[in-house]
Amino acid sequence: MISSMTGYGKTIVELPGKKLSIEIKSLNSKAMDISVKLPGVFRGNELELRTLLSQQFQRGKVDLFISSDDTSDTPNFHINKVLVKKYYQDLKDLFMEIGEENHGILLPIILKIPDVLQGEKTEAEESDWSLVREGIEKAIVLVHEFRLNEGLILEKDMLTRVGLILNLLDSIAPFEASRIKDIRDRIKTGFQNLCKSENLTVIPNDNRFEQELIYYLERLDITEEKVRLQKHCDYFIATFKDPDSQGKKLGFIVQEMGREINTIGSKANEAEIQKIVVQMKDELEKIKEQLGNIL
Length: 295
Known about the structure:
Number of domains: 3
Strand order of the largest sheet: 1-2-4-3
Order of helices and strands: EEEHEEHHEHHHHHH
Shape: elongated
Oligomer: single chain
């Protein structure tokens, strides 16, 4: 089953006095790249979350972002009065020593000092964390659903393009028949023109001529390449039915498809077949672009 590397999931968790918004976003990346941004109270759980995300996502850039909004009418911080008094007295004494009498500016300065304003919680309650983890797991499920839906769209597009390649492959046949006749006529005409230019009267041996023609045509024969390309396309289609993620495997198959298409183009020696090869290459490049977004 095809799964895209692009996904998004969002859940909301209500805690006493606050509301948490949990967002998970995944994007294309060749390797596993995890980014976690949490409120300070949950930073102790970051390693646990990274382990969870690495288990749930095989590949891609995964961003987890949790934001917090206060919903309580009461302040969620308090002033460390003991510390304020200590700072105030020390600064007041300093002001007196330097002759500064404006003590009114001390309090705003003190309130900016670290640890004077303290939050009520520095660590998450176990019950709060259980709810947050549950919300994260629900967001992960939403990301997987998003990825699968995107994968279905990519699968449909790639199968359509493989079908176009197969149709183009079938369209080569009529030009192959005329190609042999064109090559035979071209060789005969070239031989006659050579004899004429050299004032030679030579009658070619028909048997030898056919032998040389067969040897030449064997080097330009594309039957094997066509058969292999057909098999690669069939294998590509069959691989979509595998329940496991097959992004890398499909990439290998596409490489083999490209190799056969290139060989057909180099051996075709016929303008119309070359045009068909260019169209097949165009469709194959579009498939490669889509493959870059699947697991």
